[in-house]
Write a structure and sequence with these properties.
alpha/beta, 12 helices, globular
C-alpha cells in the first residue's frame, strides 16, 4: 500500500496523465459545466440524485474536487462553494470557472471548524485514502448537525468486479482493481454502509449505478479498442455506488 507521500506525488498533475488525455477529459467536463448551468433545481436533483438533500445557498464542500463536476451542480443551486484537492492544476481549473474557496492538500490539513458545512460531497476519493474510517470521522466533525454527507465510490459488490477478481485469482494474479497505489480500498455496498453507521451517521439513501458511458463519447476516445470494450461492458453492470448520510 502506498504511503502519504507516494499518493501526493501520484496525484500531482493527475488530470494531465495519459489516461485522461485519451478521454479529452477537460473538454468533457467543460461541456458538462455548460449543460448543468442551464438546469433548474428540480433537474439538477433528478440528474444528481445524491444531491437531493442539498439546499440552496448553503455551505457546500467538495472533498477531492477533481475538475469540479460536483461544484458545478452546487453552483447551480447558488451554494457557497468550498473545495479541497491535492492536484494544484485541478484547483486552478475550478477557480477559473467558479467562485470557490479552495485548499490545496488533504482534508486533515485544512483544519475546518466543527459543525461548519451543510453538505459534504466526496466522489471517487474515499477508495484512494489511507484510513477511510478516520476520513469519514473527520467529515462528520466538520458537518453541521442535520447536515448531509454524500460518498460516491466503486461498488465491489458488483457482479462485474466479482467476476474480475475470481478470474484473476484463478490465474494466480492479484486483481488489479486494487492496485496498491491509486486504489487503496474498494468497498462492498454493505461494508460502506456499516462503516458510516459505525461513525454515528444515519444512512438516508444508498444506491448503485452503471458507468453511464455514452457511445458517441466512447467512439471518440483515443484509446485501444480493448479499453473501449471494457468501458462499454461496465455500462451493463452496477459498478458504482452513492451513499448519503445525515449527521
Amino acid at each position: 500500500m502506498a504511503d502519504s507521500q507516494e499518493l501526493a506525488d501520484y496525484y500531482t498533475n493527475y488530470y494531465e496523465k495519459e489516461h485522461y488525455e485519451a478521454f479529452n477529459y477537460k473538454n468533457l467536463i467543460l461541456n458538462h459545466y455548460h449543460r448543468i448551468a442551464g438546469l433548474k433545481e428540480a433537474q439538477i436533483k433528478k440528474e444528481a440524485k445524491f444531491l437531493k438533500k442539498l439546499g440552496e445557498k448553503t455551505k457546500f464542500l467538495d472533498v477531492g474536487c477533481g475538475l469540479g463536476l460536483g461544484l458545478a451542480y452546487a453552483n447551480g443551486l447558488n451554494c457557497e462553494l468550498y473545495a479541497t484537492e491535492l492536484d494544484t492544476g485541478a484547483l486552478e481549473f475550478v477557480k477559473m470557472h467558479f467562485d470557490v474557496k479552495t485548499f490545496q492538500g488533504d482534508i486533515w490539513e485544512a483544519k475546518f471548524p466543527e459543525n461548519y458545512f451543510d453538505f459534504i460531497h466526496i466522489s471517487h476519493v474515499i477508495e484512494h485514502v489511507l484510513d477511510p474510517k478516520a476520513y469519514i470521522s473527520e467529515m462528520k466533525r466538520i458537518l453541521k448537525p442535520g447536515g448531509h454527507l454524500a460518498i460516491g465510490t466503486p461498488n465491489m459488490s458488483s457482479n462485474l468486479y466479482r467476476f474480475h477478481r475470481w478470474s484473476k485469482l484463478l490465474r494466480m494474479n492479484v486483481p488489479d482493481v486494487i492496485d496498491g497505489l491509486e486504489h487503496t480500498f474498494i468497498f462492498p455496498k454493505k461494508l460502506l454502509k456499516d462503516i458510516c453507521e459505525e461513525q454515528g451517521l444515519l444512512v438516508t439513501d444508498h444506491f448503485t449505478y452503471n458507468l453511464g458511458e455514452k457511445l458517441g463519447n466512447l467512439i471518440s476516445y483515443k484509446m485501444p479498442l480493448k479499453k473501449k470494450l471494457n468501458r462499454l461492458l461496465q455500462n451493463a453492470f452496477q459498478v458504482n455506488q452513492w451513499i448519503v448520510c445525515k449527521k
